[in-house]
Design brief:
Elements (H helix, E strand, L loop, with lengths): L2 E6 L5 E2 L7 E6 L6 H14 L3 E5 L9 E4 L2 E4 L2 H12 L3 E6 L12 E2 L4 E2 L6 H19 L1 H4 L3 E4 L13 H18 L4 E7 L5 H11 L5 E5 L14 H6 L4 H13 L4 E6 L13 H13 L6 E4 L31 H10 L4 E3 L1 E2 L5 E8 L2 E8 L10 E8 L5 E8 L6 H7 L8 H11 L3 E3 L2 E4 L2 E8 L3 E9 L1
Parallel strand pairs: 1-19, 3-4, 4-7, 7-10, 10-11, 11-12, 12-13, 13-14
Antiparallel strand pairs: 1-16, 2-15, 5-6, 8-9, 15-17, 17-18, 18-24, 19-23, 20-21, 20-24, 22-23
Helix pairs in contact: 3-5, 9-10, 11-12
């Protein structure tokens, strides 16, 4: 059955701010000292428009932010400065996740990840507040108040999970109180928020706590993944998948938006799945999921930070396999995955979203207008193990210019899919420069002409969408 859609190019538009470009995620902070990480982040900024970066563990012992010898505390912000200096040099800013606990302040030896980040509460909240105040004051002195007021300070990471603390609201709320008071003591206009929870948790309770305690919350932050409803990461049963929905993240964001009220809402982590070794991260599936999820989140969030921009990432270990199912948009060699190309297509669209008529079980369509023309964004997407077929899409566009040229860029099994070529090579674990160059070339987006028919100001076109694919059709006057 043909998927049929129509749109009036002169119709009333809804604003489409590029909220997905506000922030992108990374791993832990020390990665920011690596040259290859820096090169990939600069590319992500230049090609995808990402404006902030968020990472874990800027306060952990590996950063040397606070260490102790006996009863003497030593504060050293040099490594953090090196990272932030670089961010500002390429036109980006930090979304500062204040984590994890310096060992000298930790109340217990509870750690997470292979780099052993301490996740216990401070044994002395007053000393924690001193650290925060000294650090933020230092950044104001170094970068200027006008600059730091543009940053975001997020208190902790996923405190509702026992992996990152006690899992108790009371412990987190106490930490938030000391943190926000320390930061606002430096300058009242610095932006602080939370609760940085997993799975959209604690939003109402957090805002109620802030209101009743007279504490500011400049923004709400939380995380969600489509696999949150599947159980533990890696679980993959038929029943779990059958219970999920194609637009689950949109529905969750709507509910969270309602809880947040008028407070700005930032999702500081989301991804194709929460499994750090999921083959879907490297496949065209991720591209279709990203485009659909992002465009469905319009009007619900102020920021939507994809986790992560790079496979230079080592929460468990650092694998050498080029396509190992990591979270990143780029693999360890900097080869763009289909997910990266999805964000590249989104970066190229305008800011006026037009209403589209038509519906289909797996095909979704959006039309986005800009000063130079319009882009038809199409996805053919279904969740794993759900039925999906190649679909013929027919699009009718009213009020199209008399002379209009159409071209398409596609992401699917045969387009912008470097992993497939790597598999055809025999899945080599270590790549020489020539192979990297070849895979980079295969990963590129390419434009192809689309045939159109025009009659009385109406333009018609057809395109074939394979399963789990994206097509961006550019319409421009000749």
């Amino acid at each position: 059955m043909t998927a049929t859609f129509s749109c009036d190019l002169n119709g009333p538009a809804t604003q489409l701010p590029h909220f997905w470009e506000h922030t992108v995620g990374s791993g832990h902070a020390t990665l920011g000292l690596r040259a290859d990480w820096q090169a990939q982040l600069k590319r992500t900024h230049d090609e995808l428009g990402m404006r902030h970066v968020r990472c874990h563990s800027i306060l952990s012992d590996e950063m040397g932010t606070l260490i102790g010898e006996g009863d003497t505390l030593f504060y050293s912000f040099f490594n953090a400065d090196q990272i932030f200096d670089f961010l500002l040099s390429i036109g980006m800013k930090p979304f500062v996740e204040l984590s994890f606990m310096p060992g000298v302040l930790a109340s217990a030896d509870k750690t997470v990840f292979h780099y052993r980040a301490n996740v216990s509460p401070p044994k002395d909240h007053a000393q924690w507040a001193v650290l925060i105040r000294k650090l933020v004051s230092h950044w104001v002195d170094r970068y200027g108040l006008d600059e730091v007021r543009q940053w975001f300070f997020e208190v902790w990471n996923e405190p509702n999970l026992t992996a990152f603390g006690s899992g108790k609201q009371s412990d987190y709320f106490e930490l938030y109180r000391y943190t926000v008071e320390a930061i606002k003591g430096v300058d009242k206009l610095l932006r602080v928020g939370g609760p940085a929870t997993a799975d959209n948790a604690w939003i109402g309770d957090f805002l109620d706590f802030c209101r009743t305690s007279g504490l500011p919350a400049d923004f709400v932050s939380t995380h969600h993944y489509p696999t949150d409803d599947f159980g533990k990461p890696g679980d993959d049963t038929e029943a779990q998948l059958a219970a999920s929905k194609r637009s689950a993240l949109r529905d969750e964001a709507r509910a969270t938006r309602k809880q947040a009220g008028d407070v700005p809402l930032y999702y500081t982590e989301w991804c194709t799945s929460s499994n750090p070794r999921d083959p879907l991260h490297d496949d065209p599936y991720a591209a279709a999921f990203i485009v659909k999820t992002v465009l469905e989140a319009n009007g619900l969030v102020q920021g939507y930070s994809y986790w992560t921009f790079s496979d230079i990432f080592e929460e468990n270990y650092f694998p050498s396999i080029p396509f190992q199912g990591g979270f990143g948009l780029l693999n360890i060699h900097g080869i763009a995955k289909p997910a990266y190309r999805a964000f590249q297509l989104l970066h190229g669209v305008g800011t006026e979203l037009l209403p589209v008529e038509g519906a289909h079980e797996t095909v979704d369509a959006w039309v986005i207008r800009d000063d130079g023309g319009s882009t038809l964004m199409l996805t053919n997407f279904a969740l794993p193990r759900h039925p999906i077929e190649t679909e013929e899409v027919s699009f009718t566009l009213k009020a199209a210019p008399t002379a209009t040229m159409a071209s398409v860029q596609q992401i699917d099994a045969d387009h912008a899919n470097a992993k497939r070529r790597w598999e055809e090579m025999g899945k080599p674990e270590y790549l020489d420069p020539a192979t990297v160059d070849e895979l980079n070339d295969v990963s590129e987006l390419r434009s192809e002409p689309v045939a159109t028919e025009s009659e009385a100001g109406t333009l018609s076109l057809k395109v074939t969408l394979p399963p789990l694919s994206v097509a961006a059709i550019r319409l421009a006057s000749t």
